[in-house]
Amino acid sequence: MPYKSLLIFFLLPALGLAAPSHAETIIHRERSAYRDIIIFEQDDTRCMRFTRKVSARQSCLYLDGSDKLVFRYTKMMIGALYLAPKPRRILIIGLGGGTLSNTLSSLYPESIIHNVEIDGAVIKVAKKYFNFRTGEKVKVFEEDGRIFVKSAIRKGVRYDLIFLDAFDQEYIPEHLLTKEFLEEVNKILLPGGVLAANTWSTSRLYDHESVTYESVFGEYFNLRDFNRVILAKRGGLPSIDEVKRNSRALDPLLKRFDMEAAWLLPMFSTQKDWNRNARVLTDRHSPSNLLNVK
Description:
Number of helices: 10
Helix content: 25-40%
Radius of gyration: 18 Å
Structural class: alpha/beta
CATH architecture of the largest domain: 3-Layer(aba) Sandwich
Strand order of the largest sheet: 7-6-5-8-9-11-10
Number of strands: 11
CATH topology of the largest domain: Rossmann fold
Strand content: 15-25%
Order of helices and strands: HEEEEHEHEHEHEHEHEEHHH
Number of domains: 2
Distance between the termini: 12 Å
């Protein structure tokens, strides 16, 4: 089986694959310059997916207007606040339905949030179908994430919280996986700044991704569920006691998003459960070259 097919086979459970309890109702479908975009409603949710082949879900919200987060991985990414409880400048690469941006702007209305999304069609449907909100403090840039980061370096723009959540219909774009890209991201983190990166626990690239992040950020918290969320901090991780103190302070604020520290804290592990001799991903040794994708 070709690599890309294998990747989809092993990894799509992390996008919310499950036998549907009721048939989905498609409310919007279009082909953008980059992908198929399908918006559908099923049971009590409205969701977005980027493929017609399987019932994957890139982003969802509850139709009752609840602030509760649908996906466990989103809650894991919000766990970055346990390391950076008062972010003032936030960067999100990969928009989806805008869930991260809406949640963070609700929690921190005075913070600046920059969203970067390469696909203008995704921005359009996020606003129309997922209540993605922009304003004076919240901006969205239709641009490739790596180009945006390079531009930020040149301009001297920096952030104290960065989320990497860019996916296409298969996985994370290759140029957003390499050591060179992560070094660029590190340059726009303020001292003590925190990075949260969404990947997949069952990826064939797991070992390579792990050593690549470690080569740039050193030790990090490795949160594992169906998804894997990497939490790194420039200058080194805080103690787990500090993480727990921050989680207790945030619990009352996060409750309405259906987040509880009692569920999330046990995932905060620094155990190295990967092959430490795996090759680091670079612009030269990208995943496709490494795995001989044809």
